[in-house]
Amino acid sequence: MIYRIAQYRRDGDFTDDRWDVTHLGERTLAEVFPIRHPDHLGDTYRLTEEQAATLAPLTGLTFDLETCEYYLEPTAD
Q1: Residue 70: closest CA among 46, 54, 53
Q2: Are 1 and 75 spatial neighbours (Cβ–Cβ below 8 Å)?
Q3: CA-CA distances (angstroms) from residue 44 to 4, 10?
Q4: Hey, how many other C-beta atoms are within 10 angstroms of the C-beta on 46?
Q5: Structure pTM?
Q6: pLDDT tens digits, residue range 18-43?
């Protein structure tokens, strides 16, 4: 699986950007998101403020939750 964080402007329908966060590993992502087991990481998850705060130092990304929504979007590799 490839795991990306997708950014969508609140007033738009298309992604502005996507960042590959696969390097964080399934176990770390499963801990950040409400997932009981890493094997269940196949769904799309919207980032909360708490999750964005946790992911920011791990990824180096800055999340602007005022104007954008962010989603973890897994895809088959």
Answers
A1: 46
A2: yes
A3: 10, 17
A4: 11
A5: 0.85
A6: 999 999 998 899 889 877 766 666 77
The token pair that represents 13 in the structure block: 């329908």
Of the candidates 26, 1, 2, 15, the one whose C-alpha atom is nearest the C-alpha of residue 71 is: 15
Instruction: Give me 48's structure tokens.
Output: 């909360």
CB 44 within 8 A of CB 56: no
- With residue 75 as reference, give the H or E element that holds it: strand 68-75
| Ramachandran category for residue 25: left, alpha or beta (phi over 0 → left; psi -120 to 50 → alpha) | left
In contact, 72 and 44? CB cutoff 8 Å: yes
Q: Is 39 exposed, middle or buried (0-12, 13-18, 19+ CB in 10 A)?
A: exposed
Helix (H) / strand (E) element for 57: namely helix 49-59
